[in-house]
Amino acid sequence: MKNVLVIDDDEKICWAFEQFLESEGYAPSIANNAEEGLRRIASDKPDVVLLDVKLPGMSGLEALGEIKAHHPWIIVVIITAYDDVETTIEAMRLQAFDFVPKPIDLELVKSVLERAFRTQSVRSTLPMEIVDDSLTARPMHRLVGKSSEMREIYKLIGVMASNTMTVLIEGETGTGKDLVARAIHVGSERKEKPFVPVDCGALPDELLESELFGYEAGAFTGAKAEGKPGRFELANGGTLFLDEVSNMSPALQVKLLRVLQAQEIERLGGTRTLKVDVRVIAATNQELGEMVRLGKFRDDLYYRFKRIALHLPPLRGRQEDIPLLITHFLQLIQDELGKPIRGISKEGMKLLQDYAWPGNVRELENCVRSAATLCRANVILPDDLPPEVRTGHSAGTTDAAQLETSLKSMLQNMTKTAIAENRKGLYEEVVAMLDRALIELVLDEFSGNHSKTAELLGMSRTTLIKKIKQQNDNE
């Protein structure tokens, strides 16, 4: 029998859980506070614990720490009405299995439990894991959003904060990669040590090298007489955030890889080897995997970065977070403006939610800041919003321009590679690649429905099937 312990002080919720768990074939037991729950865990040894965060006496997060310290193999699912970002990150950092918000969705609970017991079954064949129970500090953050996409991001931040592995954060410009990096740092054991950001796209290669590794006196013309420590030295014991790492030259990529492997640096013009203890978090708005394929980025450095990868969703993919973000930005800027802003009209909110936000969260913040400055009362109206938001016309144009720029950049790289390798037939190669990619994407959108796919692509179903067959034969 699969044993599930529910720790919750709400008797109605406990009764509902008991009925539900029994109907699903589980053996439920109930505890109404954390202390009682810990005693039951010690005596009954349940497989899974459903743990409420807000409990009388010891909190759920405190109980989670105790459970993981003394019973590391028990799977704990956090359940709470207080589904804020901080609680989510802290719970996942303390190695909670998952996070289910109230009001309870029993279908979601059923899915989580099924996955938990599958995990338990697999783990039973593995050796005992070592659990680090020293991570107790609450992380601080400025991330905003309660969409399912952002909840998954918070969970990953919590997991990443519990180790020191290199992290790669991918996402479009303006999605908040720097905030995620800071949240990982603040949630980690390194939080008392420096967080040092470097924008790899803002400096030419020579300056970036001296900025990262430092230099000795006289290393180059204009060098300070006393030399200068680099960002690796300044971040010693803490975290170094390399933003837009895709801009690094191949030569600098080689040096960075050596530092990551050996945790040693040499200043420019120096002869001493300096040991450093630095966790590196890298970020990029480029597809590094594609850059590796085109020979524009080292594969060994890419895979070193991608030990743990996190992809931030664009704002257009989580529109339900827009009202929360607007409220957050208004709270931040009211003091700057010297006037209170009560909010935004319904019409204005609809315009903001309908807009595609090619610049993502950063563009939204700039928009809110501008509208709050221009509004004549304490409520933002549609007329206070930028023209592109009011009309929505520039969003598609901007997206098309970005697509064209990206395609030109990719095609330029492919052209240079083809010339260097003295290849022929580039046109057919590019057309075949785009043909395959578009057909696969549309098929995926229509769950493999050939008729709907052919209709959208503007071709007959027979032609579509013929193309798919040709593509499969060419693999």
Protein architecture, described:
The protein is an alpha/beta fold and 475 residues long. The protein has 4 domains: 2-123, Response regulator (Rossmann fold); 148-311, P-loop containing nucleotide triphosphate hydrolases (Rossmann fold, 3-Layer(aba) Sandwich), CATH 3.40.50; 320-394, Helicase, Ruva Protein, domain 3, CATH 1.10.8; 424-473, Homeodomain-like (Arc Repressor Mutant, subunit A). 50% of the residues lie in helices and 13% in strands. It has 20 helices and 16 strands. It has helices spanning 11-23, 34-44, 60-70, 85-93, 106-123, 148-161, 177-186, 205-213, 231-234, 250-262, 288-293, 299-305, 322-337, 346-354, 360-374, 387-391, 393-420, 426-445, 450-457, 461-473; strands at residues 2-7, 26-31, 48-52, 75-80, 98-101, 167-170, 195-199, 214-215, 228-229, 239-243, 264-265, 274-275, 279-284, 308-311, 343-344, 379-380. Strands 2-1-3-4-5 form a 5-stranded parallel β-sheet, with helices on both faces. Strands 7-10-13-6-14 form a 5-stranded parallel β-sheet. Strands 8-9 form a two-stranded antiparallel ribbon. Helix 6 packs across helix 7 (177-186). It starts with a strand and ends with a helix. The model is unreliable at 124-141 (pLDDT under 50).
Summarize the structure.
By secondary structure, this protein is of the alpha/beta class. Helices cover 50% and strands 13% of the residues. Strands 2-1-3-4-5 form a five-stranded parallel β-sheet, with helices on both faces. It has a five-stranded parallel β-sheet with strand order 7-10-13-6-14. Strands 8-9 form a two-stranded antiparallel sheet.
